[in-house]
Amino acid sequence: MTINTQEIIALEKQYLLQTYKRPDLVLERGEGSWLYDAQGRQYLDAGAGIAVTALGHHHEAVIEAIRQGAEGLIHSSNLYHTAPQALLARDLCESSFADRVFFCNSGTEANEGALKFARKYARATSRPDKTGIVAFSGSFHGRTMGALAVTATVKYRAPFEPLIGGVTFAEFNNLDSARQVITEQIGAVIVEPVQGEGGVTPAEPEFLTGLRALCDERGALLIFDEIQCGLGRTGKLWAYENYGVTPDLMTLAKPLAGGLPIGAVLLTQAVAETLEVGDHGSTFAAGPLVCSVARVVFNQINQPHFLAEVKAKGDYLGEKLATVVAQSPLLAGRRGRGLMWGLLSEIPAAEIVAEARNHGLIILVAGERVVRLLPPLTITRAELDMLIERLSKTVTAVG
């Protein structure tokens, strides 16, 4: 099929709800770390669909899993047992702190589920007054009413208020601030070990250690949102492994099924045993095809040599980015971990992102003044060098 770029853009503007500001290109296919638009232009993908295509585009094992899954059972609903769901749950639990998994369809749904489970846990343990939730400045947990309530960005929240009540925000990486608001009425604390949308900001080790201690002391559940920073992105399978701190619940989504929709809430047995049949549900969650693909993705990433290579490539990228920062007056610094990096910009980050496309590079923003880099975990060293070269040309052109 021949794609007319302007026709597709016109159809988007006519029929789609205008909640996204898309650039004037139509993506058509991908291969490895590369994207191609309908006019045949090639882009090095350093966004990975917002950390989703962790194994790159058109990965052979993922394509084969989709093919085999489509030949079997695509959907059955959660009224019945299916093998892929049970096997994926086992894989996740045996490789993490968790004893149980609840599957859903997105990161937002995973965070909604975690908040619900925390409220039920408090009620089931004879503390129905512990309905409060603490979140942090710079946080992003999703767009639905509960997930949005624990998202700090005012422009996302304000048009839809009032949101669910009982949410208090503390300052990220400030343990004294957290200590002041984590009271006996707080049932859950939700935090990203590495903030994504809020600016690619890693948590300080003492901050997460302190949150764990505060939650234990005051009877609150600790929820880690690893939707963007989990599943290999930081060079460890789970971001919490970098800190030696385990949560009571953890939410996953983006990369888990290689681009197909899935989310998950991982939880301890202590939390799980307070939930009963009918407490939560989802029609589409954990479909056989999606879970089959997710098992392939998970088991590709959950290999010591793969994770070691992600860390090594992340260290290499971090060193190269430090050089780019030092050479550009537009950039004030860089921060991140593994293959998740943010560049602090002196100008609106969107200007750099837009110019990057002219140099065949796809990058993202993370707030107004941070450029975000989330390349596929399978990116090669040679491609990282190309990324740095194109990024350098971009900031030079903008400057």
Key features of this structure:
globular, Aspartate Aminotransferase, domain 1, 2 domains, alpha/beta, seven-stranded mixed beta sheet
> CATH-wise, what's the superfamily of the largest domain?
Type I PLP-dependent aspartate aminotransferase-like (Major domain)
What global shape is seen? Answer: globular
What is the CATH topology classification name of the largest domain?
Aspartate Aminotransferase, domain 2
Residue share in β-strands:
15-25%
The number of distinct β-strands equals: 17
Adjacency order of strands in the biggest sheet: 4-12-11-10-7-5-6
Unreliable sequence segments? none
Radius of gyration: 21 Å
Concise overview:
Helix content is 39%, strand content 18%. The strands form four sheets. The protein has a seven-stranded mixed sheet with strand order 4-12-11-10-7-5-6, with helices on both faces. The protein has a four-stranded mixed sheet with strand order 1-2-3-15.
Structure notes:
The protein has 399 residues and is of the alpha/beta class. It has helices spanning 5-15, 48-51, 60-71, 83-94, 107-124, 145-149, 154-157, 175-181, 205-218, 269-272, 288-301, 304-327, 349-358, 381-398, and strands spanning 27-31, 34-37, 42-45, 100-104, 132-136, 167-170, 186-191, 194-195, 201-202, 221-225, 249-252, 263-267, 331-337, 340-345, 361-362, 364-365, 370-373. The longest helix is centred in the C-terminal third of the chain and has 24 residues, at 304-327. The relative contact order is 0.16.
